[in-house]
Amino acid sequence: MHVTFPFNEPGRFWRGNLHTHSDRSDGALPPEEIARRYREAGYDFLAITDHFRAKYNFPLTDTRQLRTSRFTTLLGAELHPPRTEFSSEWHILAVGLPLGFPPPEPDESAPQLARRARGAGAFIGMAHPAASLLTTADAESLDAAHAVEVYNALSAREDRGDSWHLADVLINRGHRLSAYAADDAHFQPHDPPGCAAWVQVRAESLDPQALLAALKAGHYYSSTGPELHDIKLDDDLITVRCSPVRKVLITGGDPGAKVVQGEALTECSLPLAMFKRRWCRVTVEDSHGRRAWSNPIYLPPGRTPSITA
Known about the structure:
Layout lengths: L11 E6 L13 H10 L4 E4 L2 E2 L19 E8 L12 E4 L14 H10 L3 E4 L2 H4 L3 H6 L5 E6 L11 H9 L5 E5 L15 E6 L4 H10 L2 E4 L4 E7 L2 E16 L5 E14 L7 E7 L5 E3 L3 E2 L11
Parallel strand pairs: 1-2, 2-4, 3-4, 6-7, 7-8
Antiparallel strand pairs: 1-9, 4-5, 5-6, 9-10, 10-15, 11-12, 12-13, 12-14, 14-15, 14-16
């Protein structure tokens, strides 16, 4: 699908976490307490995505009663069909599932279950690929995916939080995917705290269907701290405006990068000529090492590229 980049879309950015677990599966806290923590941390929405396993009676946690005029929830689950090359089960994020979504059939494969979830209205993500040792062959089989979970705050404690390498390879192979960051918060005593990684979704309202539509269209960026204010293309230059950072980095489908470093950078322009495979992405890093990431920016042939997700 050919869509415009989020900064030019109507509405505003809404901050949310797409991957969270409650005591309905292996999380430590009830949904009400989790929602309170995110709401008080300044979040606009939350998806509680409990593990959709038989041992938990296939929970699809109903959080509709937690919605207010200023905070909303998306219903979802983490799906675990068998199997990947190196694991007995998959980890597939499905945000936007309807209540009553049927459990997997005994012989239902991961691609089949993901297609069924997407057909039911869900946004489909490959959860923590690095932590799951997901291979390129595994990932390419999941043809219903909308996105790759490129940063997972819980997996970062195992030094496997970053999954951009897999996303870059998949995009180079022609898969049009977006990329999101998430907490994967369980709130167990040994876990890192929540509210560490999020998406900023551009939509006209907090209506759950509006948020889901924006996620599916790629109208969002991800962050662990900095803000992206705008990205513009003019001929062969990309211009980035953001909150104060120490580094602006442009990478993409080709080895190498374009980098600007300094103190309290808020705007800079970089050339795009090196990206022969016609796509790039933006990363900014602040003085605390926190980062924000654009979605992939697809550059069609011609002197003036356009931005799509």
